[in-house]
Amino acid sequence: MHSSSDILAGAKQVLERNWREGRTDGGLVFGYTCPDDAKYPDQFFWDSCFHALAWSRIDPRRAMRELRSLGASQQESGVIGHTTFWQGPVRPSRALTYNVMNRRAFQTATIQPPLLGYVWAEVAERAGDASFADEGRAVVTRLHDFLDRERADADGLIGILQPDETGLDATPAYDVPLGWRCHPKLGFLALCSFNRRRAYDYRRVVADGGFHATDVLVNTAWILGWEGLARLGDPRAAARAEQLTTALVARLFDRQAGIFFAEGPDGELLRVSTWAGLAPLALDRLPNDIGHRIANEHLLNPRCFWLDYPVPSTAACEPTFVPGSDKYFWIERYWRGPTWLFSTWFILRGLMRLGYEAEAAHLVDRTLTLVRQSGFREYFNPITGEGMGARHFGVSTVTVECAALAEHRPSATQSVA
Questions:
Q1: Each residue's pLDDT tens digit, 51-68
Q2: Contact 301, 311 (CB under 8 A)
Q3: Global pTM?
Q4: Where are the domains of the chain?
């Protein structure tokens, strides 16, 4: 990676700075990258997926350890929670808003976008390790069995209990159905309490009239997880990914608007344009005509998403768009406008798959520029490029992965079983 060697060196420094390893009192060995050493010291599920992608370009052995730690944290039910507290209980300052059943919990009871199958297959292929692929197939199968059993609707798409399960905590997509319970309003504590009293059991919450939704990003990750599981050697997984892609289009694609929207608790489409509506571009089986509509009408529209530093988390044409810091009293509301580099990976995959080579190169160039001028920050102003939030944010090292994809486009993904 000639043109991005400085980015590679900087990413390695951030990942090493945030690396944590050890052994629990119960004998579990762990090694993971915390998102930030001060703000987020624990292991976060989908952050770790992106950390592993970045590590796989630098040190595949670290990438394997990162994912093995997620596997080691897997509960008997098959779930792997949003956050795992390897080095002690959740901090008192976070206990009220973290989805734990009690203060001593080892892991939160809620999920994050289930991207693990896809990432495990990528890391196994890059490491050239078939036995690691076998490990991953077992872990991901148990996770998928849990999600099928506890979260899936009749069409196979899975539901969420809270917006933070999407990874996009305060996204405006759910403002209307949540109302006073939006993160981080005081009512959010009531939402957490309602779900905690039902042990974060999705079926119970739905039966009792609680908030639930079918999220675009979560289900995109769900489908990518099945695509990965196929590469890990599960013979049923490719057909399942195809079936789920069909269900996603049928249920969440708004043909009039030309973009995906989340579905609210009453089965209504929540017509707020956020980057989650673009995320299905990453799916191999997304029909090309739909991909081109999303790209041409929304992603590449300079009034909506194709800003100076794309891709903003909420479309600039939305009334809820705030490009910089957005506080509710003293608490930051995330994902309401700034660019987070989680999204770059999804969007880049779509642009490359659909043949938008110049636009893909532009996206990578702007992302490299962001990091060069502002560092590996947590999120960025999509108009000015100003970095905000954590200063050594692990997921922003996914820039390395994006640069590598753009420079060395693979001809096809391989089975690694």
A1: 999 999 999 999 999 999
A2: no
A3: 0.96
A4: 2-406
